[in-house]
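Reply to dn_fold:

You asked what the input looked like. This is it:
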Amino acid sequence: MNARAPGRALGTVHAEWTKLRTLHSTWWLLLALVALTVLAGAATTGSMTAGDCPVPADCHEDTVKLSLTGVWLGQGAVVVLAVLTMSGEYGTGTIRTTLTTEPGRVRLLAAKALVLCALTAAASAVGVLGSLVVGRLLLSADGFTTPGLTDGPTLRAAVGTVLYLTLAALIGLGAATALRDTATAVTAVLALFYAFPLLAGLLADPDWQERALRAAPATAGLAIQATIDLDQLPIGPWAGIGVLGGYAGAALVAGGWVLRARDA
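and this is what came back:
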């Protein structure tokens, strides 16, 4: 049995890859991820002006973070794709066939996660690179000083943003596996990413507000995009990614537990 395990695992991954790549919605959502990330980032950087600064270089703007603003919209497409990866099968009833073909629940969830992460990371890398290139062109044309794409802080922000979107996908997958309903899972995860930071910002007590921002997956995870004034962030860049990773791990554990308990 142990000798067959690697082959069976690869077979499960191949089956999940075939299912996901043959869905038109997969490619439309990946395209939406790239388009929203680049276009929203371009709208933000294109609207910036250095005219109010005596010297454009003294505007002290985090041009890298500004260029990556579109991730706020792009993550919505990631969440929908991640949820559909699992909930779509529950909606059509094909999950019964899937579980009959692959009785290993953990192996099935791991295969879905692997394929989803690969596609999300690839599309995210395209979106992030496009955002940085377009943002650099627009901001430089207006007189802003922009760091090179290979600068250490810029690379950290770029790689970290791809990781952020990949972890967001895992949260969506875990939530969909636990809730098994597309609308419920999408609503829950989008509220986690969009509503939680807004509610945290409404807290009157500065200390509680800072604690809430540290705990919110979006504000914590997106701290990875900052390249200046790191001491003013509610949480450090990599610590913030750690918080997001905790959410992803918890979502997958909850989803795996429900998958084994309800569909045994």
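Residues 34 and 126 are 7 Å apart (CA to CA).
Hope that clears it up.
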